[in-house]
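Input record, target 12 of the design panel.
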């Protein structure tokens, strides 16, 4: 192999490493957005836990088949997984297919993760759509976390630590979510709201 060939080979290796690094970060953010452990993602994707861990740490270059399995398990396109943040425009558009959806245990409330996945560790926001009577029970977030629920349609009720408050369209409830809390759609019709969770808000100390 000539000098030019070696340089090209080195450039290709460098490019592959950079791409793999961005992909690993994306997979980790998506996994955390779904509140999935490595074991749970491994079970859903059929990719070994150790391989997923290596991908997230940029210690391996996965095959296309592995990338496809992970993208299917995370409900996003391969293009989204492979996107490099350095090349992303300031205005970023996400399609419905690329928007992760969380579903409450009763199956009546759906939370579309519309926030930027890069902020998932400290700021999360969701488009909440619920059937009448839908309930979302949540465990405690980290200390100092605050959640804001702005009602767009219908009526919702929030319960935290024995305290309960309701809000109709145009009203917002703010509450500490570093303890178990519940959100209910108490109207007779479907409800919709925007939910923003600020982790480590440090306003309740």
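The sequence produced for target 12 reads:
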């Amino acid at each position: 192999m000539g000098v030019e060939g070696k340089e090209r080979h080195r450039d290709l290796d460098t490019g592959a490493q950079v791409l793999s690094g961005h992909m690993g970060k994306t997979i980790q953010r998506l996994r955390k957005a779904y509140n999935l452990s490595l074991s749970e993602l491994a079970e859903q994707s059929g990719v070994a836990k150790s391989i997923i861990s290596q991908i997230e740490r940029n210690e391996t270059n996965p095959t296309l088949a592995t990338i496809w399995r992970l993208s299917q398990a995370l409900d996003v396109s391969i293009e989204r997984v492979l996107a490099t943040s350095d090349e992303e425009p300031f205005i970023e558009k996400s399609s419905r297919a690329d928007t992760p959806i969380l579903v409450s245990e009763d199956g009546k409330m759906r939370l579309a993760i519309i926030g930027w996945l890069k902020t998932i560790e400290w700021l999360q926001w969701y488009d909440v759509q619920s059937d009448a009577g839908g309930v979302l029970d949540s465990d405690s977030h980290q200390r100092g976390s605050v959640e804001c629920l702005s009602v767009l349609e219908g009526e919702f009720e929030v319960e935290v630590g024995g305290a309960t408050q309701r809000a109709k369209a145009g009203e917002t409830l703010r509450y500490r979510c570093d303890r178990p809390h519940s959100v209910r759609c108490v109207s007779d019709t479907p409800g919709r709201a925007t939910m923003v969770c600020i982790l480590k808000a440090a306003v309740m100390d």
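The two ends are 64 Å apart (CA to CA).
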